[in-house]
Amino acid sequence: MAVQHETELYAPLKAFFEERGYSVKSEVRHCDLVGISPYSEQPLIVEMKKTFNLHLLLQGLERQKLSSDVYLAVERNRAKRGAHNQRWNEITILCRRLGLGLITVTRYKTKPPFVEILCSPGDKVIVPSPKVIKARASKLLYEFNERSGDYNVGGSNGTKLVTAYREKALRVALALQAGGEMAPREVRDRSGIGNAAAFLQRNYYGWFRRVARGRYVLTPEGEQGIALYQGVVDGWHQAAPAADDRYPHE
To answer: InterPro entries annotated for this entry (predicted)?
Structure first.
């Protein structure tokens, strides 16, 4: 059964790697899927496409600047005959030459998807893999660790992502919603965001307004932002019910 959108590959891949002990999150620093394992210092990165193409290959090479454990994942559609993306032997050899892993996902009408690893990163590498840029890798791990959960869908394009920055801005907005007009120090104490003042001053999303020197309120756009990301807030409360008292917004 052919996939309509590459996002349909995310759930089977997430389940596949979670079964192998990875903690998985999507859309971290532009990577479709990122996994962290207690048994590896390198983050797992998976880039997904419906079919194997040059754009996917170039994405994989770029991600090798973040980690040496990079996979490309595509659909394996048994109904297609003679298509270039069905030449799995040649594609696998190409990925091995570049130090990339290759995964296929086969979907069925009546049974769960089948995920198969055709090669792993580092299998018979003929050319050296690009050197990991430590600063970029550090930003990737920071973004992963600063997110409280997995609120995006891997493969998303043109949608507003729940990033670590947006989560912190949301906590600042919740503090203002609950406390009304407040000083940055009060927002910091109520939200638990140490640099809350920077969020208020930069006002990247237009959620906050300064009404007097050192005094801020939540804007109508901020109220809309809280409503838009209510699912994220609910996830916080489910993960830590005791934190509900901090945000008495209901």
So the answer is: DUF2161
